[in-house]
Amino acid sequence: MATDARQVIGYSQISEQVLGQASVIRAVANTEVEGTVGFETVKVYVNDLSTIGDYTPGSGISLSNDGSSYVDINTTKEKAVNELLDGYTVETAPADLVASRLEAALVKMGEQMDEDAFADMVANGTVASAAGAGNAPTVANIYDEILALKLALDNAKAPRTGRFLIVTPEVENLLLDTDSKIILNTARGDEILTEGFVGRLLGFDIYSTVLLPDGTNAIAGQLRGFAFKEGWKIPPRRQNLDGSGTFIGDSAVQGRIAYVYGAVRPELIQVHNGDQ
Which domain holds residue 129? Predict the structure, then answer.
C-alpha cells in the first residue's frame, strides 16, 4: 500500500528537528558539500588565502594560481530503521506512537553520526601539543589547556568565527567547578538548540558529549576543518503492512539515511589527548 505523502513530509520535519538536537557534529562541521550524499563521491570546497604581491604601475603584477580547491570525501555510511508496530497499539496509544518511535531511531542515528565523526577527527586531526596543550586536565589547569588550544588554532590561521570545543562530561565538570573560576557565556543558549551546548569561552562554542573516543579529553576546531552531510535515501515513513499475507493491521516505521564525513584541513582540528 502506498505511503501518504503528507506523512512523509511530516516525518521529514521531525527528522530535521530531532537530528538538529541530537547531533553535535551537524553544528560544528562544514555542511556545504557538493554532490548527492549516498549516491556519489561528494566534494568540499577549500578556500585558501590568495597570493598577493607588489603592483607596479605600467607593468602590473604577474598572475598567480587560484589557491582554492575541491577535496573529495568518500567516507559514506548508511543507517536504517525498520521497526514493526502492532496496529492495535498504534490506534490505542495515548500519543503518536509512530512519531515517538521515529524520534527514538533518529536520536540513535544522531549519536552514531557523532561517534563516527569524532573518531575520524581524532584519527585524522592534529594532536594539540605544539602550543602547550596536552596535560591531564584538572580544575587548576583547565583554563590554560583551553587557552593553549586557542593558540594552536591561532597559529594555524583558523578564522575566529565558527570555532568549537567538544569536551567529555568530566572536562565539562572541571569547567563548571567554582574553583576553576571560569565564567561561561551562555547568552547564545536560546539560539543553539543542539543538546550538550554548555556555553562560550575564548571564542569557542562548547559542547559536552559522552561520544568522544576513549583517551580524548577535547577536540577544538573550526568548521572549515571538517565536513559532514547527511541525506535520506528513503525518507522516514509509516509503511502499511496490512494485506501482506503475514501482518494484520500492522505497520512499520521505515527510513534509510546516508551520511558522509571527513577531515578537510587537519590543522584546524586540534585534539587534546592529554594524560601526562
Answer: 5-49+69-272
> Which H, E and C letters describe 212-269, residue by residue?
CCCCCCEEEEEHHHEEEEEEEEEEEEEEECCCCCCCCCCEEEEEEEEEEEEECCHHHE
Does residue 57 sit within a domain?
no
Q: Helices then strands (H, E): number in the chain?
A: 6, 12
| Domain count of the fold of the chain | 1
d(CA 207, CA 200): 9
Measured CA to CA, the distance from residue 125 to residue 108 in angstroms comes to 25
Place of cell 501482506: 244
Q: DSSP 3-state assignment of 57? A: coil
* Total-model pTM: 0.83
> What is the predicted pLDDT for the residue at 171?
96
Residue 91 CA to residue 120 CA, distance in Å, equals 43
The contacts of residue 230 (CB under 8 Å, 6+ apart) are: 19, 26, 37, 113, 257, 258, 259, 260
Residues of the chain predicted below pLDDT 50: 1-2, 49, 276
| Residue 26: all three cell numbers together | 551537524
User: How much is the pLDDT for 190?
Assistant: 62
148 within domain boundaries: yes
Instruction: Measure CA of the first residue to CA of the last residue in the chain; give whole Å.
Output: 61
The span from the CA of 233 to the CA of 130, in Å, is: 42
